[in-house]
Amino acid sequence: MSAPPGGPLSGPLSGPLARIAAVARATLRDLFAGRVLLLALLLAASWWWASRAPQVASDAEAAALRLERRLTWIAVVAGAAALLAGAHALGEERRIGQLEAWRATPLRSGELLIGRTVGVVAGVACGALPLLLWQLVVAPDSLRAQAERFAPRESQAPLRVVRQLADGSRIEWRRGALLLDPGESVQLEFAARAAPAELLLPWSVASRAGGSAPADFTLRWGAVTRRPVAGETVATWSMAIAEPTPEVEIVVAQSSGVLRLELDEVRWRGPPGSWLPSGARLAAGVVVEVVLAAALGVGLAALVGEGLAVAGGALLLLLAHLRGLFLAVATVVDEAHTHAHSHVTVDEGSRALAHLFERLVVLLPDLARVRAVERVVAAEPAWRADDGACFAAAAAFAAGVLLLARLQLARRPKGAA
Fold first, then answer.
1. Helical residues (DSSP H) of 97-137, grouped into ranges
2. Of 8, 189, 293, 414, whose CA is between 20 and 30 Å from 141?
3. Could you report the per-residue pLDDT of 240-259, keeping only the tens digit for each?
4. Do residues 255 and 282 share a domain?
5. Is 205 helix (H, G, I), strand (E, B) or coil?
6. In the prediction, which pLDDT does 414 show?
7. In this predicted model, what pLDDT tens digit does every residue of 355-397 receive, in sequence order?
8. Is 2 among the domain residues?
9. Contact 152, 378 (CB under 8 A)
10. In the prediction, which pLDDT does 326 show?
11. CA–CA dist 172, 258 (Å, integer)
12. Residue range(s) defining the domain that contains residue 336
C-alpha cells in the first residue's frame, strides 16, 4: 500500500491534483489486500439474508420485500467494503510507520487522506454499480422487469373528505382515522388525474366491547363497485380504473359493523412512469454511502488505527441507518411525557436515554434517506427536493472526519510511530 518517495509525487510539474491521483492509483491497485476472505464471508452472509423467502401474505408484498432486500444488500455490502478498504489503506501505513516516509515527499497529509479515499471509492464503486445495474436491469426480478409495480407513480391524498351522518347532515373531515357508523357514508374527492388510475384504501372493522358485526359497505368509483367478501374484517384494497372520476363514495349498510378508514394512508395513484429516475436515484445513494464509508475508514484509521476504525465506523454507519428510528422514538417519548393522558408510560431514565441517543444521532447523516430504497419499493417519486441537503449532510460528515484526521497527522511529531 506504500510507495517510495519521489516518482509522481515530486518534480516541478507536480501539483496537489497530480499527487492525489498518484495516491488514488496506488490505493486502487492494492485494494482489499489481505481482506479477500473477510469480504467473501460478508458477501455470502448478506446474500443469504437477501435471498430468504419472505413470510408475507401476498405476492405483491413478497416482490416488494425481495426487491428491498436485494437493493439494501448492495448498499450495505458496498458501504462495508469501503469501510474495510479505507481502514486498511491507511491503517497499515500507520502501523508500520510508513506515514513518516511520506513526509520526505511534497505530499501533504490532506492530499494523502483524499487520495486514499478517492482510490477506495473508485474501486468499490466499480464493483457495486455493476451489481446494482444487474438488479435494476438484468435479474429476472429486476426493477425494469417489475416496472408496472415499482416504477414511480404520481400519488395524491384526498383533497376533501365529507362525512354524511345517518340524519343527512354533512361534516368535513380534516385528518386522522375516520369511524363510520351503520347508515353513514363518506365522499373522498381528488384532483382530476390522467387515466388510468389506482386507488389504495386501507380499512378495517372497529372493535367494540360487545363484539363487532362483519363489514358490509359499498364503494363506488366511476364504473367500479366493490364490497367486502364474507368474513373480511381488515384489508388494503388496490383498485384500478380506466376512466376515473374525481370522487369516491363509500356507503355503510345498516347491518355493518363500525368501519374504520385510515385516511392518512388513502392514495390516488396515476399510471406508472419510467423506472430510470429510480435507478439513477439508487445509484447516487450507493455512491454517496460509499464515499461516507470510505472517509470513515480512512479518517478513523489515521486517528485510532485499523481495528478500532472498522469497529467504530461500523457502529457509526449502523447508527446513521437507524437515525430516523431514534429520532421518532425520542419524539414519542416526549409526547408521552408531556401528555398525561397518553397510553404510553415513560420513566425519567428511559426519557434521558432516549434524549441521549437523539443528541448522538442528530449529528449523523440519515443513511436510510441517502439510500431511498423504501421510496423506490413504494413506487414513490424517485427524487425529492431535500435530496440535495441529504447528500450534502453525508458529504459534510465525511469531510469533517477527514479534516480531524488531517489535523491529527499534522500534529504528529517527526519520528512518531
1. 99-102, 109-133
2. 293
3. 777 778 889 999 988 888 88
4. no
5. strand
6. 53
7. 676 777 788 899 989 998 988 888 788 888 889 999 999 999 9
8. no
9. no
10. 73
11. 19
12. 7-149+275-411
| CB 207, CB 187: distance < 8 Å | no
Size (the chain), residues: 417
Question: Whole-angstrom Cα distance, residue 279 to residue 286?
Answer: 11
Counting as low any pLDDT under 50, the low residues of the chain are: 1-8, 12-13, 209, 339-343, 415, 417
The identity of residue 7, as a single letter, is G
121 vs 20: CA distance, rounded Å: 13
| Three-class secondary structure of residue 239 per DSSP | strand
159-177 in b/e form (b: 16+ CB < 10 A) is: eebbbbeeeeeeeebeeee
Asked if residue 299 lies in contact with residue 402, where contact means CB atoms within 8 angstroms, the answer is yes
Degrees to nearest 5, angle at CA 385 with 384 and 388: 95
Same domain, 11 and 143: yes
Query: Which cell numbers hold the place of 361?
Result: 444521532
Pair 368, 405 in one domain? yes
23 in a structural domain = yes
Q: How far is the first Cα of the chain from the last one, in angstroms, to the nearest whole number? A: 17
Residue whose C-alpha cell reads 489515521 in the numeric block: 302
Side chain identity at residue 198, one-letter code = E
Same domain, 54 and 140: yes
User: Are residues 145 and 160 both part of a single domain?
Assistant: no
For cell 351522518, the residue is: 165
CA distance 347 to 46: 38
pLDDT at 6: 42
Instruction: Count structural domains, the chain.
Output: 2
Amino acid at position 117, single letter: T
Closest CA to 72 of 52, 99, 93, 102: 52
Report helix, strand or coil for 314.
helix
Angle between helix 59-96 and helix 36-51 axes, rounded to 10 deg? 170
Please give the Cα distance from 265 to 263 (Å, whole number): 5
Q: Is residue 125 part of a domain?
A: yes
Which amino acid, one-letter code, is at 193? Answer: R
Whether residue 237 contacts residue 200, with contact meaning beta carbons closer than 8 Å, is answered with: yes
Boundary residue ending a domain (272, 288, 310): 272
Q: Is the dihedral of CA 92, 304, 396, 390 positive or negative?
A: positive
